[in-house]
Predict the 3D structure of the following.
Amino acid sequence: MLVSVVIPCFNVEKYIGECLYALLNQNYKDLQIICVNNNSTDNTLSVLTRLAIGHSALITLVEEPQKGAPYARNRGLQEAKGEYIQFLDADDLLEPDKIAHQVNLLNAHNYPDIIAADYYRQSVNGNRNLFQVNHRDYWLALLYTQLGITSANLFKTSFVKKVGGFDVTLKSSQEYALMFNMMRNEAVVIHDHKPFTIIRDRTEGAISQQNAAENMERYLNLRIEIVKHLELK
């Protein structure tokens, strides 16, 4: 089974090499890696070009002129040929067994639409904290942001396309808006309790206080939508 991996890339020259080498070292080899350069102004494009030339059978490099991760992810989605898709942020890392383990879960659970996975968040000083999915109730997990995170989860490509991919109007809460759209269209969700994904914090990626208020507004608006949907079920 082919698995497509979509990586939005904006000014990540310090991280993208390590991210890609972690992918190339996956024990699962049937991969299509799609790197989407999204208006980078540092040396990201040079690093991507070099790696794409060196691994041309695996890595496809495309450009997305519209700024923002949702645009970049949707651009990668257009190129995706895999039955399942891994959206991966360029500063995150996958352990070698991540994709192989989740493909085994797909086979064992009749090919669900979403695998929601536990993961580690690694601080700038290297400390790791475990974040776990609320596997007892996936709707409550969605409501309380306990249904995994972009780089940890795995999605059925056809279902992501069916709901229109990522909402390009959102600057935050993007993966939860996607999962909400999938779940209200009867997507099947399963839990992966193996934390094979490392979400890395970085100082230059910190959200400003100005954006924090806007992000909270988007967060609350999405939760209001979820509650309204649940009230009608």
Remarks:
- The chain has a mean pLDDT of 95.
